[in-house]
Design brief:
Number of domains: 2
CATH topology of the largest domain: Immunoglobulin-like
Helix content: under 10%
Number of strands: 29
Strand content: over 45%
Shape: globular
Largest sheet: 8 strands, mixed
Radius of gyration: 21 Å
Oligomer: single chain
Number of helices: 1
CATH superfamily of the largest domain: Carboxypeptidase-like, regulatory domain
Distance between the termini: 32 Å
CATH class of the largest domain: Mainly Beta
Length: 390
């Protein structure tokens, strides 16, 4: 089984969620239960992104080897092929659960099936308007993707977690060959009930709009609004930890819309607007930011707002073969509104001082991140910024 050599696996804010209504995990006095589910952030330019999950393994030792004793597993039998793009707006794919001895677990391994002659599309991608092709997993770890975690299993309690698989940042182009590589970007978070719900104009419910919750310019949770059915235009960002967030909407040909100070409260979902007042930012021309960086570099386009905060408007790994990244970015002023609870209405104002002004952040595992402050981007213009790491 082949896995990528470099995994961008973000494990932040891991907490144990006790099973509230069901009386615990149902194990013995010296055991609890680990339950896992899978969800996804929006994909960029794909109609489907499918992965085949075999199992998830956990161990109490961060240095335990694949053949060491003490592993516990959530095994999917048969292995389950999941289209990640169906797992947005709070939808979860249950992976299963397993009883565990009480104690602290510090290592997790996500095990995906390998594409093989018998199952050549175990992991695959369908570009928008294109045909399904193999999603290659570059050679690397043979026993699954290792991650250091910090999960406490308590007696007769359930540790309830979600693996948030970011398809947009996990699928990497490889030159002009038509090949795609799988380099998973996954965050592991508790299965919170809390989150944020809202609506965008139906014209933006087209699969290309992204709505995210951010803190300090880092995306915590993202989704695409429903593009059909009775919920068209609705978005749900869940699960999300209680706290204060910035909500960011980006869509091709539109100015960025930002709602600051969105408060998420435990055990509830915060509405940011009503169906009758959907988010509908003004049209905007765009320019292009492009450049190169070493393979496996994550390049993010950030926009610092007047008086803060800074928000991410785009971000992906560079092309695996050429190192190229390219982002079309709005040149119009971002529209910013402070959050007000319903029945209040969001009042947006253009932040003209930062129109067309962006900063790039490039990060590569093993090196300090680099930043480039760009000149003002204008309609139809291209700004090039290349990154190198020693």
């Amino acid at each position: 089984m082949k896995f990528l050599k470099h995994l961008h696996l973000a494990l932040g804010g891991l907490l144990v969620a006790g099973l509230a209504a069901c009386g615990g995990g149902g194990g013995s006095a010296d055991s609890g239960t680990l339950r896992l589910a899978l969800t996804d952030a929006p994909a960029c330019g794909y109609d489907a992104v499918k992965v085949t999950v075999q199992k998830v393994r956990v161990h109490q030792s961060a240095s335990a080897g694949d053949a060491d004793a003490g592993w516990s597993e959530v095994v999917l039998n048969p292995a389950r092929r999941v289209d990640l793009l169906t797992l947005t707006n709070g939808v979860l794919e249950e992976l299963g659960q397993t009883p565990l001895p009480t104690g602290k677990y510090t290592q997790l391994r996500l095990v995906l099936a390998d594409n093989s002659a018998a199952n050549p599309l175990a992991n695959s991608v369908t570009p928008s308007g294109g045909s399904e092709v193999e999603l290659k997993t570059p050679s690397g770890q043979q026993s699954g993707v290792k991650a250091n975690i910090d999960i406490d299993i308590a007696a007769n309690k359930m540790a309830d977690f979600v693996l948030d698989f970011d398809a947009c940042k996990s699928v990497v182009t490889a030159g002009n060959s038509g090949q795609y590589l799988l380099k998973p970007v996954v965050s592991v978070i508790p299965r919170y009930i809390s989150g944020v719900v809202g609506f965008v104009a139906t014209a933006l419910a087209n699969g290309n709009t992204s709505v995210s919750l951010q803190q300090n310019g880092v995306v915590v949770k993202a989704t695409t609004p429903y593009s059909s059915g009775v919920d068209i235009g609705k978005f749900l960002l869940q699960p999300v930890a209680p706290g204060s967030y910035t909500l960011v909407l980006t869509a091709p040909g539109r100015s960025t819309a930002v709602v600051t100070g969105v408060t998420v409260v435990a055990e509830s979902v915060t509405p940011v607007n009503a169906i009758g007042t959907p988010l509908n930012p003004a049209a905007s021309a765009s320019g292009t930011v492009t450049g190169t960086a070493p393979a496996d570099t994550l390049v993010r386009a950030l926009q610092p707002l007047t008086g803060g905060p800074t928000v991410e408007v785009a971000g992906r790994l560079v092309d695996a073969s050429t190192g190229v990244y390219t982002y079309p970015l709005a040149v119009g002023a971002p529209l910013v509104a402070p959050y007000v609870a319903l029945p209040g209405v969001l009042l947006f104002a253009a932040d003209t001082a930062v129109a067309g002004k962006y900063t790039l952040n490039a990060s590569l595992t093993g090196f300090a991140a680099k930043t480039a402050v760009l000149g003002t981007l204008s309609s139809g213009a291209t700004i090039t910024s290349n990154f190198t790491f020693p």
